[in-house]
Fold each of these.
Amino acid sequence: MFSFSLQTTKLVLSFWDELIKTDKGLLVKLNAFGTESWDSFWLAVTNQFYWVPLFLLLFVLLIRTFGWKKGLILIVFAALLVTFSDQLVNLIKNSVQRLRPNNDPEINEIIRALKHPRGYSFVSAHSTTSFAVTTFMILLLRYNFRYIKLLLIWPFLFAYSRIYCGVHFPIDIILGMFLGIIIGFVFYRLSLTFFVKRSF
């Protein structure tokens, strides 16, 4: 029994080591596509400030679709979603403590790091929160705006910018994406439950 458990542990650790090795190799390859002529574009994409007009547009769409009362309540739900997502990601990062690519001594000399944050890497807050907000908004507005699914362009660009800038690994982005989708769906269901109970 002990031998089987030890063997299983070795297999899991071996798989994990290989996964991390592959993840780093993929980051190096994807990051290498970067060129100086595109740096300013991706630095703008990765900056939350430049997406403020999109957020304002989404708030307008919520109010236009649901009215002021429901719309403002849904905006509060969106704010709570962002806060929850951010805090959950911080908890995960501080628990896992994976170094960012720009701080990883194995690869930080061979990648193009356009930013140099000090925090941990896993999972990506940009990826998690952007996919959470996008999922929440698409579920709310999908019956009222035919092209609302085009909103998915934002989180994909936003998340990839972190790889381009050399501050996140692909696994950070991918698992952040799935975590964000789950969070967005949960908050969507909570908002439905809230309105049903309050009979708005």
Amino acid sequence: MSAAGMDNGLGARLSRVSAMVQRHWYLLRHSWPRTIELVYWPTVQMLMWGFLQVWLAGESGPVATAAGVFIGGVLLWDVLFRGQLGFSITFLEEMWARNLGHLMMTPLRPSEFVASLMVMSIIRVAIGFIPVTFLALWFFGFNLWSMGLALVAFFANLYLTSWSIGLFVSGLVLRHGLGAENLAWSLSFLLLPLCCVYYPLETLPGWLQSVSLCFAPTYVFEGMRALLLEQTFRSDLMVRALAINVAYFALAAIAFRSLFDGARRTGALLQMGE
């Protein structure tokens, strides 16, 4: 077998992805401020919304029936936001280190680099998310894991959305430099009021409901409320969310590749300043 054939084999590709994951895992493991930050913000969010829910349950009978809706919403939102942030921050660390140009001169392919970002996104979310779910059980008696297999559908769709945003943001930063890095923190928040994280879809004006239904997380959070309030798993909502996610992820991948090629043509990969 030729050297080129060995470089293109599945084992070689997995090895390169694994090497990139290990690089960022070592950075994370040996930096306690990075690790603490992954747990800190999810914990603050969970406590804030959890205590708000406790107060509302004491003030209003009907609200009391919505047990866990706020806490469930904030936990699942954190999967989306932290998943996207984990993807984008891992990418930005290569930009800040001015290492991306060096990586692209190795056999590492853009698709393999993106795969490593996805894996690190899952790892970073797990580090912060799992402890917070147990804190939610301890403080408020809310057991997210009691949702069972429905969580697989929720997580899969939220991760796909987060990766789509992360891909698009990473492409913009590649093409336009670190001046665009603030999008990594801000773009996801555009979805927060539109995707009905803390309230039903019917709360929005009619014309805005049509906009909201164009985003996959809307179906996830509607499905979460149906499960918590009606003990019903809405598989139809998850299928619609998946279809939208596949379309958006494909568009994000095309955009990333186009922006990456543009950055390579203009030499932006080697000029990673503002």
Amino acid sequence: MASTVASSWSFAFDAAETFEKKCSSCHSIGGGDDVGPDLKGVTERRDSKWLIRFIQESQTIIQSGDPVAVELFNKFRQKKMPDNDLAEAEVLQLLEFIKAGGAPTKTSENKSALKATPNDVELGKNLFSGSMRLSKGGPSCVSCHTAGQLQYLGGGSLGPDLTQAYSNYNDTGLSKVLTKITFPTMAEIYAAKPLTNDEVFQIKAFLYSVDKTGPVTAGYQKKFLFLGILGLFVGLGVIDFSWRSRRRKSSRPTAGGKS
């Protein structure tokens, strides 16, 4: 009875769909390294027990000091692979799918940010900051992230700073990440509200522009702090002036009163 239940449960698992949703934004099968390594031949290079555990809890293995895991983590710019709540039988099916070469790669529009116009960059900034709504109703990036100088204008801190996202992911990788958002806290939200191709390109163009400009300099931070302090003193001065004016008016003698 137990084996029958396990068999039917495993049969319901769709390895192709799981790879598409959970893996394809960072990995290819025979298409070369991307955000993460190319998985072609991985079942020959690595022991199945190691692969099962790594897919289920990669960060735990990295933190344990496993030399292979640490080497991969450092090679791919320390990108954190989310843990996957998959049973061993499901991981084995996923590995069989990868071993067989996976499904044919879907071609998707990937317009390079290098072709962006200043208007594209401005549109991307507006989408990122939320001053322009995403067409399918998803939350703006600034709800959880910041980038460049937006950190001084109320950028979110739940997610990482994306100032260097373009360098970290490269053009194609960033397109895939924005098209197939698989990070646990975002996947469920954007599954029904994906970005359009135009929105992916425009946000990518903004992030390229921010990355090219470089991280916010200490000089800019000091300037911003100075302007903030100056604004505070100006505000206090206005309040003091207003209070003094009211005090002088209230101390004047009323008509017919004694001097």
